[in-house]
Amino acid sequence: MMTEKKNVLLIIPSLMVARGIEQILGEVGEFKVIGILSDLSRGSANRLRNIEADVVVIDPIVFDYESRANGRSVLADFTDAPAVAIETSLMDEETLRPYDAVIGIYDAPTTVVRKLRSAVESQQDSPRAEGEELSSREKEILVSVAKGMLNKEIADQYNISIYTVITHRKNITRKTGIKTVAGLTVYALLNNLIDINSIE
């Protein structure tokens, strides 16, 4: 029985590295690259919102040095897909810790695939529970997301860490089965959590 290939989005400044990963994944056949972005500029970020990726492979170097430690939370503003960091240069552990997995440019193809599979499966291991209600805090976070707030803004508003916001967003995705900001906005509207006039 043929299983459906998982969609991978690459956000890697080096086209040579990105094409190498694409080649490796193409040979293995379990994953397929559906897009390559070299940065997270406004144009790229807008494209990212419209891509349905099962996993994102990102080189944290796309973030400037000061925002690199918060790179994972920046990415979570655009997609709820698991994020796998690719370490193309030496990075401190604090930068890499928030990612769902880390692959190195010297990893064997089987190791790369295993880590991607693990990242995807870890998100699928928490399937949507039928009838599982959003907590009041999750509803507040959902409303903030629907209003277009970034993770850092939400964290500041509720005086919680960015990592807590990311956890709430993952729980919201798991419970609703909705991965995109647009989908969550529609969900919030349909469930009378927000008014159409409050959306930016």
Written description of the protein model:
Helix content is 46%, strand content 13%. By secondary structure, it is α/β, with parallel strands linked by helices. Strands 2-1-3-4-5 form a five-stranded parallel beta sheet, with helices on one face. Helix 4 (93-96) links the parallel strand 4 and strand 5 (101-104). The protein is globular, with a radius of gyration of 17 Å. 32% of the residues are buried. The model has no long low-confidence stretch (mean pLDDT 82).
At a glance:
By secondary structure, the chain is of the alpha/beta class.
Quickly list its features.
single chain, 200 residues, alpha/beta, Rossmann fold, Arc Repressor Mutant, subunit A, 2 domains, 5-stranded parallel beta sheet, 9 helices, 5 strands, globular
SSE order and pairing:
Layout: E1 6-11, H1 15-28, E2 31-37, H2 42-49, E3 55-58, H3 71-76, E4 83-87, H4 93-96, E5 101-104, H5 109-124, H6 136-146, H7 151-158, H8 162-176, H9 181-190
Parallel strand pairs: 1-2, 1-3, 3-4, 4-5
Helix pairs in contact: 6-8, 6-9, 7-8
